[in-house]
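User: Reviewer 2 asked us to show a designed sequence for the structure in our supplementary figure. I'm pasting the structure tokens here. Could you produce the per-position amino acids so we can include them in the response letter?
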């Protein structure tokens, strides 16, 4: 136990109802607002523009964490943090200050050092949740708690709402809607922010080592494309035209390759007006990359390296430990399986690119798989998800997809009826996809026309014919490999958490 303490959490039978909690918070807010007024009336500031900070809580802990009980450092510091524990008794008060990364240090405010008037003001005005500045010597208390023996203090920001009970786990609803509270009270929330930053930094480092350039492409587009997805629509007053939030950056990144940026990538936001569940969010972070003179084999190798390097950056090993304690191995060479061959083996019937729509529909009817506006490719992919996907645990590249579901992908160089595309599955969910890119403008136009027919038949996810993109291809795009990977899903693979936990501020209804 430290010198700074707070009252214990209420027993379950004394917990407040939602209405009682709201009433209590309202009452506390009124009390705290009155304290704010008294601060201002006294000539102090409730929200000063700055305080004379000289160091940070983590830095003090790193430099003086070795102090033995009752030992002093001789170093005078000025530091600030959020008040998360408070005990006001007698002539010596204890307060625990927390920095943004969760590090804490104790401050001791004694009448002997700050004076009777200052101590009285401290007891009257400082609350849990306030940002507090203290100056004084770094010491170790008689119980061995690293502390600052304050010679002065100042409120850096007055909290007018009380913190949640630090001894009680926040509800999922509160964590999603009020992530700032989640960050204050929960180590896991703060760690996810660091983990995500480490993963993104690793991705950029791996790309830089391979001479890829990072670019930014439009998120407002006149024609949506680059994926089979339903877009969000909006209106531009300046141009008096309908626009779409992008569903993928692909068609613009390929324009960059046409222009001579041979290795290009982007990490940015995509928007898809579709369902939300444990692995889908309407707004999500996406990585896409294109490599001239590569193909879906070379881009698979790059993707494996990107993910394995991210695991090393986050966990120090290819073996990552998920939130539930499960250890998951991202190391070694990952399996590669054929979509058609794995489906045939699991379904117990031979399925090839030449299998008729009627035969596929018969298999789907037998196992209860329903497909809206069925095509050969849609039935094959849905049947594969039914039969094969649930059994995938280790990292696996699923290779060679039907032509009609992959309109931006080059036909397979040796297998008729499929394209050179893979999807990467990690523990049963799709993490990334990669292509040998279709660069023939004549075939690409034919594929777009077929997509337009599907759209006219009611397929809301079908791509539209993009004349400007086709014109760019007509100037010549080199043979290329391309990949796309959800950053949120990468964090899922590294942490074992659901997608809303990996997003700092997820969209909630």
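Assistant: Here is a per-position design you can include in the supplement:
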């Amino acid at each position: 136990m430290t010198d700074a303490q707070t009252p214990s959490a209420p027993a379950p039978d004394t917990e407040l109802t939602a209405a009682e909690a709201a009433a209590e918070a309202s009452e506390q807010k009124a009390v705290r607002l009155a304290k704010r007024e008294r601060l201002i009336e006294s000539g102090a500031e409730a929200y000063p523009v700055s305080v004379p900070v000289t160091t940070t809580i983590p830095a003090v802990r790193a430099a003086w964490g070795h102090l033995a009980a009752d030992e002093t450092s001789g170093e005078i510091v000025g530091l600030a943090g959020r008040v998360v524990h408070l005990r006001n008794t007698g002539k010596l008060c204890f307060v625990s200050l927390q920095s943004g990364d969760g590090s804490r240090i104790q401050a001791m405010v004694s009448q002997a050092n700050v004076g009777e008037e200052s101590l009285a003001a401290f007891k009257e005005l400082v609350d849990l949740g306030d940002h507090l500045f203290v100056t004084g010597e770094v010491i170790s208390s008689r119980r061995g708690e690293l502390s600052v023996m304050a010679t002065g203090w100042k409120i850096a920001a007055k909290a007018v709402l009380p913190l949640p009970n630090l001894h009680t786990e926040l509800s999922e609803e509160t964590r999603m809607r009020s992530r700032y509270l989640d960050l204050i009270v929960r180590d896991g929330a703060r760690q996810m922010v660091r983990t995500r930053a480490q993963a993104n930094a690793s991705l950029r480092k791996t790309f830089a080592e391979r001479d890829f350039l990072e670019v930014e492409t439009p998120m407002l587009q006149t024609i949506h494309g680059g994926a089979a997805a339903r877009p969000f629509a909006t209106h531009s007053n300046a141009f008096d035209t309908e626009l779409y939030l992008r569903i993928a950056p692909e068609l613009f990144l390929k324009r960059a390759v046409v222009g001579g940026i041979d290795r290009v990538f982007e990490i940015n936001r995509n928007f898809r007006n579709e369902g939300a569940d444990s692995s889908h969010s309407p707004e999500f972070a996406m990585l896409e990359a294109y490599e001239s003179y590569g193909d879906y084999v070379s881009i698979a190798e790059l993707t494996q390296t990107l993910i394995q390097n991210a695991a090393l950056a986050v966990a120090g090993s290819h073996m990552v430990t998920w939130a539930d304690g499960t250890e998951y191995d991202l190391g070694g060479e990952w399996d590669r399986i054929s979509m058609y061959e794995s489906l045939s083996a699991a379904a117990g019937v031979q399925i090839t690119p030449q299998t008729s729509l009627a035969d596929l529909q018969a298999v789907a009817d037998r196992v209860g798989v329903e497909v809206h506006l069925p095509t050969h490719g849609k039935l094959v992919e849905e049947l594969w998800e039914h039969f094969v996907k649930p059994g995938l645990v280790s990292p696996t590249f699923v290779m060679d997809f039907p032509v009609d579901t992959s309109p931006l992908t080059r036909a397979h160089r040796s297998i008729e009826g499929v394209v050179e595309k893979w999807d990467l599955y990690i523990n049963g969910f799709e993490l990334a996809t990669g292509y040998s890119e279709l660069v023939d403008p004549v075939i690409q136009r034919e594929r777009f026309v077929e997509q337009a027919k599907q759209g006219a038949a009611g397929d809301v996810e079908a791509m539209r014919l993009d004349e400007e993109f086709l014109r760019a291809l007509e100037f010549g795009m080199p043979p290329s490999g391309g990949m796309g990977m959800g950053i949120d899903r990468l964090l899922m693979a590294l942490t074992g958490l659901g997608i809303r936990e990996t997003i700092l501020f997820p969209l909630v209804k």
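For the response letter, you might also mention the following. The radius of gyration is 29 Å. Residues 1-14 have pLDDT under 50 and may be disordered.
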